[in-house]
Recover the amino acids of this structure.
């Protein structure tokens, strides 16, 4: 039986997509998502942030569904506060990947997101956290980053921009790990095979949803796998050029309620 809904599942990125300044969601977006849910669609958040850095957003939304976090490594049940699925990154592999990258482009600054619902983000020497409202724990030595299980590594370079760092890191270690750009000053290494598409596909299985019934919204290259998986991908006006190249549609920016514009059309 075919659903009468235009889409059964609405997958939204957070930063630069659903969220406005200050990690807020506008009233218009709240209302548009509520109308879509009232019509029978489900909303799922798909974010690069790990669970500890996203729970305050979920609480503010009154969100009680599943959330794909940690760039696809985690599927989190917000209602129960538990991880349904989590993939850790081999710390030895992470060290090897960093060593290979530094052998090619010189010193990089690194941070890690630890695994777990109450885990910490550790930042090594030189790494600058561009989102000061998110909690971090500075450590004095690179080796301290590997003190507990992790789900990803974050990189910065003192001279290279995000695009160049992503390109060069991928050329060096793309056969070992997944390299992605998740946002400004946010280049990440993940376990091979882990991305937003793999996380969303697993969450969709829990929900009994399918790619054919999914519309996805995003703004950065880390959303490209999610767009490839979903039936329709909608890029925000503020999106990275790589996402424009694969999007089915471009809407207004996150600050101009671009998600709401599309949902109001689909779920009048």
């Amino acid at each position: 039986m075919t659903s009468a809904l235009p889409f059964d599942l609405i997958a939204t990125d957070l930063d630069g997509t659903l969220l406005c300044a200050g990690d807020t969601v506008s009233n218009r977006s709240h209302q548009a998502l509520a109308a879509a849910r009232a019509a029978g669609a489900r909303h799922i958040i798909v974010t690069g942030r790990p669970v500890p850095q996203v729970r305050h957003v979920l609480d503010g939304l009154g969100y009680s569904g599943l959330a794909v976090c940690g760039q696809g490594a985690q599927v989190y049940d917000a209602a129960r506060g538990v991880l349904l699925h989590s993939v850790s990154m081999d710390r030895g592999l992470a060290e090897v990947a960093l060593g290979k990258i530094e052998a090619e482009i010189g010193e990089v600054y690194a941070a890690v997101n630890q695994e777990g619902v109450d885990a910490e983000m550790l930042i090594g020497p030189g790494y600058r956290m561009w989102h000061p409202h998110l909690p971090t724990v500075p450590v004095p030595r690179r080796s301290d980053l590997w003190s507990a299980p992790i789900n990803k590594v974050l990189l910065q370079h003192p001279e290279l921009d995000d695009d160049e760092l992503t390109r060069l890191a991928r050329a060096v270690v793309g056969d070992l790990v997944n390299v992605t750009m998740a946002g400004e000053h946010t280049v990440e290494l993940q376990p091979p095979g882990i991305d937003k598409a793999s996380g969303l596909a697993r969450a969709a299985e829990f929900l009994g949803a399918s790619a054919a019934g999914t519309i996805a919204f995003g703004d950065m290259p880390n959303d490209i796998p999610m767009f490839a998986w979903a039936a329709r991908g909608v890029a925000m006006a503020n999106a990275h050029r790589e996402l424009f190249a694969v999007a089915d549609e471009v809407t207004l920016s996150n600050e101009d309620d671009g998600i709401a514009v599309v949902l109001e059309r689909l779920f009048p």
